[in-house]
Write a structure and sequence with these properties.
There is one protein chain. The chain is mostly helical. Helix content is 47%, strand content 11%. The chain has one domain. A 3-stranded antiparallel sheet has the order 1-3-2. It starts with 8 loop residues before the first strand and ends in a 9-residue tail after the last helix.
Amino acid sequence: MSKTRTHEVLDLEEVATYLRLPVEVIAHQAEHGQIPGRKISDAWRFLKTAIDDWLRSVDDRALPLRQSGALADDDTLAALRRNIYQSRKRSDVVRR
């Protein structure tokens, strides 16, 4: 009785199948460092655990938004903002 086992190290096609994406998308993402993998000679290899961690990870672009939301109730922000603009000799009013 043979069970299908997911390998710990995946190739490009296996990652594409695992993520249900075209191979070209995975190759592009890997080439640009947007998905965790290593190119060995001419072949890409990916740790399944790294792919799983990457999927669970927080999008770094969303971090500033979450952090700013955490400060929304801080009463000192308005004064801090005014002081920053004053020290730069700039108006804190946006003109359109």
